[in-house]
Amino acid sequence: MRTLNENQVEALLLAAHEVDEVERLLAPGRVGWSGRARWFAAGGAALLAASVAIVAGAMLSGARGVPGGPGTQSAGPVPTHATPAIATAVVDSNTGVEVGAEGLEPNAKVLLAIVGHPDGSLRCVNWSAGVFQGRALSEIHDDELKSIAMSMLCFNPAERMLVVGVEGPRSRLPMTDDRAQELARCMLASPGCESGAFNAGTCATSACLTAGVSVRVKSVAMTP
Amino acid sequence: MDGREQVSGESDAERARDAGGKGRHDGAESDQLRAEFIAAHDRLHAWTLRFFMAGAGRRASVAEDLAQRTWSAAWKAVSTGVYDPARSSMTTFVHGVAHTIARGAATEFARQANRPKRGVWPEPEGLDLGEEAARAEAVDQVRAALRGDAPGADLTEEEIGVLQLVSRGLGDRELAAQLGVAPSTANARKRAAIQKLAAHLNKEPAPTRAIGLRFADRAGAGERAGPVRQSLDGGA
């Protein structure tokens, strides 16, 4: 038994109305420009306080050249009504330059070169979204995959490198430093990804990635 | 690096394809969940982007990263069974998660304002997926009541009308103008309707987890700020 007081119920009422508004927005043909404009106005007002802080942080990130500068055009799945294309950017963590046509592809690819400590924690990870131009992940030969990953090695001498290639909708891929680190930590800690008991199939099906992506993993052991 | 590296294992591309994640769900159930999740993502992702775009001053890269976090968290909740799509709508759940992540981002940026660090996005602060799932269930119960689809609530049409106005954020004076009564009368009607709805919600089986104190701690008496609006005030 839960006990909601009046204030909590009022808060739920406000949330309920907002969700209904979202549903109305998503319903095909039910909301025109005027309806959307009202929603944007309401949303804009509600988000005003958050935007100040978020923009300040985003400016800090942009100034240092981490992923997030101006760049290519991309957008999420096209909704049922017209939505302006969303300008976004992807910056390769190795080269520091914007990714070009790759960002325009509905299915993007990211390659991660992950180096862990002997205890399984993350030492470093490099990621690149600018590889495999025009080719699907499954079309990349193993030797080429390994070769590219070697060029991305972030720590030397490394005993082992975990190579993870991911392909799918851009929104589901780790295309920022933090997301890449998050995925790397998760992969290193997942069953089948361990150094001594690597199993590609098990490692590739770890719960580290969102649904709807393809993944290839390789464990590269390097001996001096 | 000296040419003696050795590939100790590799996946079959076909077998490894579409390996989204596996939590408590296995086999056909997992496939079904994954398919439902992808469908929900495709339907709602544009909204999440627009939502974060509005909050991020139309900085697309920031919005995209926050949207990505939202969907990652949502998938984690689905794949681990913390959130059950059968108990509340995905729209409601994702809506709540997105607001919590927006609040966490605003809080973190405010904190980092004077000591910025590389690695802009921290883990979403205050994101408790179990709590989000519980809240989504409660919100959907309220949505049903607002549609007049909650027979157990025993709400009259007038009371439902009052609740609908309150859900739009109307204060006592605006409510009074809509109802054609004095503000004190409007307030009394509002409280009566809310108490009736609260009684209904409180007698419903508790959702997967009790709703956290987030609401109670922040909704002061007489204030109209709900969880969503509060979440966008920079936390605290």
Biggest beta sheet attributes of chain A: 4 strands, antiparallel
| Backbone CA Rg of chain B | 22 Å
Order of helix and strand elements from N to C terminus of chain B: EHHHHHHHHHH
What percent of residues of chain A adopt helix (DSSP H or I)? 25-40%
Q: Which descriptor suits the 3D outline of chain A? A: elongated
Q: What topology, given as strand order, has the largest sheet of chain A?
A: 4-3-5-6
Unreliable stretches of chain A (pLDDT < 50, length at least 5) are 29-105
Describe the overall structure.
- The complex is a heterodimer of chains A (224) and B (236).
- With 224 residues, chain A is an alpha+beta fold.
- Chain A has helices spanning 6-26, 33-46, 48-63, 142-151, 177-188, 200-204, and strands at residues 73-74, 86-87, 107-116, 122-128, 160-169, 214-221.
- The radius of gyration of chain A is 21 Å and the shape is elongated.
- Chain B has 236 residues and is mostly helical.
- Chain B is 61% helix and 2% strand.
- The radius of gyration of chain B is 22 Å and the shape is globular.
- Chain B has helices spanning 13-16, 27-55, 60-79, 90-112, 129-146, 157-167, 172-179, 183-203, 214-218, 227-231, and one strand spanning 6-10.
Features:
heterodimer, A: 224 residues, alpha+beta, four-stranded antiparallel beta sheet, two-stranded antiparallel ribbon, 35% helix, elongated, B: 236 residues, mainly alpha, 10 helices, globular, disordered N terminus
